[in-house]
Amino acid sequence: MTRLAQTLGLTEFQTDIVTTVRRFVDKEIIPVAAEFERTDTYPQPIVDAMREMGLFGLMIPESYGGLGESLLTYALCVEELARGWMSISGVLNTHFIVAYMLRQHGTEAQKQRFLPRMATGETRGAFSMSEPELGSDVAAIRTHATRDPDGGYTIAGQKMWLTNGGSSTLVAVLVRSDEGADKPHRNLTAFLVEKPTGFGEVLPGLTIPGKIDKLGYKGIDTTEMIFDGYRAGDDDVLGAAPGRGFVQMMDGIEVGRVNVAARACGVAVRAFELAVRYAQQRQTFGKPIADHQAIAFQLAEMATKVEAAHLMMVNAARLKDSGERNDVAAGMAKYLASEYCSEVTQQSFRIHGGYGYSTEYEIERLMRDAPFLLIGEGTSEIQKQIISRRLLADYRI
Ligand SMILES: Cc1cc2nc3c(=O)[nH]c(=O)nc-3n(C[C@H](O)[C@H](O)[C@H](O)COP(=O)(O)OP(=O)(O)OC[C@H]3O[C@@H](n4cnc5c(N)ncnc54)[C@H](O)[C@@H]3O)c2cc1C
């Protein structure tokens, strides 16, 4: 074994692009991440370079100007990017979910309108379900779209935790509509909101207040989004299908979970790399700490967790690519990878001793980034809910 998180059976293109992204990360991201993070600055030069590499169009079909690649290719690139800095993978994540939802559920006119511009990264996607009063309980959404007598809708309400809220130009947003269905989630509609970048009242009735200050995941903007009489047209309803928003967004979240698992793998690989290097440099009691069995065993545990998480993530991506249902596999991969990532970064931090607490050491940033992965695209409790429901259905006596 030469390095962790290798993947068997890749195509030549997959091997090439993953290698290219890894080199890009080593050369262009790792050396500058600490400074962007310290100043909480949007990493524009890195984003520009990713546009040139075609990463924003990785999974968009070639007929709409993308590279038409699989979820696995995308996830492996994300793993590499997160190894360099988790925030960079966050720039791509919501964009990728919105492009995927358009591909799966958009009308032909919506695909023509957005996908070619999304493939180049000119239009960039954000994804909004959460509100101040809810995150896990999506069916409880309160932001409301009222049907206008002359056609279209008027939207009012407040959204929370919008990743790329200020830097995106297309937000897929889930709101309550009046479809008169018996189940709450059948009264939810996904709207495509095209807006300029920036903060303040960006369109009549649509305000993006400033950035939310966060523990980690810096550089990338996370915002609220306030609708106050915002007018949306009928052709802004995803797939021209009012009342189908819950299903459409959950489909997006499912691939998003593989993506979060990939990010967790990337952060965990980096935490391991830092630990295995430091353990051979730092001496105590006359020998490198790696020669103390307690530390060597920690490294063995960390590497085993990294490998297990990577294999589950790859399995979930391949399952989706094969057209099989992958809700349980994606939930398991997200759950295991994010929990292991949290443990591996903690172990790496402890191997660094006091220096792990210094902002001069990279592990300090990883310690602040890793907890987000336990929450984004559904907490571990929500993953366990999804997994156990299916298990109890499949193993019903
Ligand atoms: C940095 C950041 C970026 C984000 N980006 C986005 C984004 O781009 N778009 C978006 O829509 N959202 C985004 N989110 C929101 C995120 O998806 C939610 O925070 C997450 O789903 C959890 O929801 P919540 O915070 O409301 O917690 P709650 O749902 O209030 O849960 C609180 C606690 O209760 C537990 N819990 C809840 N229900 C149950 C249950 N039934 N059984 C057992 N335990 C339960 C949870 O696991 C958690 O531990 C982001 C969040 C953060 C922090």
CATH level 1 class label of the largest domain: Mainly Alpha
- CATH-scheme architecture of the largest domain: Up-down Bundle
Strand content is: 5-15%
> How many strand segments?
10
Radius of gyration: 21 Å
Main sheet?
5 strands, antiparallel
The fourth-level CATH homologous superfamily of the largest domain is: Butyryl-CoA Dehydrogenase, subunit A, domain 3
Strand order of the largest sheet: 2-3-8-7-6
Question: What count of helical segments does DSSP give?
Answer: 10
Small molecules (ligands, ions, cofactors) in the structure: flavin-adenine dinucleotide
What is the string of SSEs from the N terminus onward? HHHHHEEEEEEEEHEEHHHH
Task: Sum up the structure in keywords.
Butyryl-CoA Dehydrogenase, subunit A, domain 2, globular, Acyl-CoA_Oxase/DH_mid-dom, 397 residues, Butyryl-Coa Dehydrogenase, subunit A, domain 1, oxidoreductase, five-stranded antiparallel sheet, AcylCo_DH/oxidase_C, three-stranded mixed sheet, 3 domains, Butyryl-CoA Dehydrogenase, subunit A, domain 3, flavoprotein, binds flavin-adenine dinucleotide, alpha+beta
